[in-house]
Specification:
The chain is of the alpha+beta class and 298 residues long. The chain has four helices and 21 strands.
Length: 298
């Protein structure tokens, strides 16, 4: 029994089909058609080989055209000066196979004479069971999706994004975004065995505080010379970021994924405001953080 194929009805009204090359392709694929209408490859690519194609209809018959490799009729001698009993003007395919296996010069002296074969039609057997949803995660630009697939669909990973599952790696994604935030000094995932994202950063005072740091002599004694440095406040956050985002399908979970990254990044941005000079930077408590510590730099 032929396993079922699926037609994905996209939000924009198009129908998408997953059409990989057959295991034994009869040549070079030159076209794909849904009920005789050419199919177009989905953009952005949602798989590395670009096997998703779309059309404006729920097709009853999908076909591909293939151009077979040209048939070799015989081999002809390309160097007339080499014409001899050993190197005749023409070799049959059988003679070529026998001689070229034992003597490499035949590859330089002969060229195949071929004829094109008629194109071949390959049919992607239906019927095509309809599924409704967005396209699969964009290859290389969107997070992975791990679905809890019904047993009947375990052999069809191209449709897993339509079923319940989760997107792993949220903590790493949040940490990657936070590291791009100004004033962040360190950002670690599951720091010292505590689940979540640990962030430390330095913020200046709102009135620009400075202090004098003397130079030291050979024995460590302070000198009258030195330099003036800006004073910062050290802050630390322990964000309880979960490991994954769960959802009824990839589209819903992806929206939550993006919202969570924005939310946790906002906690760091909020805590990065300049320290209050009136309270020496000890009175700022960011919303949503489990742990917050602040102290003036000595």
């Amino acid at each position: 029994m032929t396993p079922p194929r699926y037609a994905l009805h996209l939000p924009d009204g198009r129908w998408a089909y997953y059409l990989p090359e057959p295991e034994r392709a009869p040549g070079r694929r030159t076209g794909l058609f849904a009920d005789g209408t050419p199919l177009k490859r989905l953009e952005q690519l949602v798989d590395p080989k670009g096997n998703w194609y779309a059309t404006d209809r729920h097709a009853e018959r999908i076909t591909a055209t293939y151009q077979p490799t040209p048939k070799t009729l015989h081999y002809k001698l390309t160097d007339s000066t080499a014409l001899s009993q050993r190197y005749p003007a023409k070799l049959s395919v059988e003679e070529w196979n026998e001689r070229s296996d034992s003597a490499e010069e035949y590859w330089n002296l002969y060229t195949p004479v071929t004829e094109d074969l008629p194109s071949v039609e390959f049919v992607y057997d239906g019927p095509y069971m309809p599924l409704v949803g967005r396209e699969a995660p964009h290859y290389g630009t969107e997070p992975r999706w791990r679905a809890e697939l019904p047993h009947e669909l375990t052999q069809y990973p191209e449709y897993r994004h339509l079923f319940p599952g989760h997107i792993p790696g949220l903590k790493d994604a949040v940490a990657a975004r936070i590291k791009k935030t100004v004033r962040v000094q360190y950002c670690f995932v599951d720091h010292q065995g505590v689940s979540g994202v640990y962030v430390s950063f330095k913020v200046p005072f709102d009135d620009r505080r400075t202090r004098f740091v003397p130079d030291t002599g050979r024995n460590g004694q302070p000198k009258k010379s030195g330099r003036t440095v800006r004073v910062f406040v050290d802050r630390r956050l322990q964000l309880p970021v979960p490991s994954a985002v769960y959802g009824p399908n990839f589209e819903t979970a992806l929206a939550d994924w993006k919202a969570q990254i924005d939310f946790w990044t906002a906690q760091v941005t909020e805590a990065s405001v300049a320290a209050c000079s009136a309270c020496d930077g000890t009175g700022h408590v960011p919303h949503g953080a489990l742990d917050y510590q602040a102290k003036p730099k000595p």
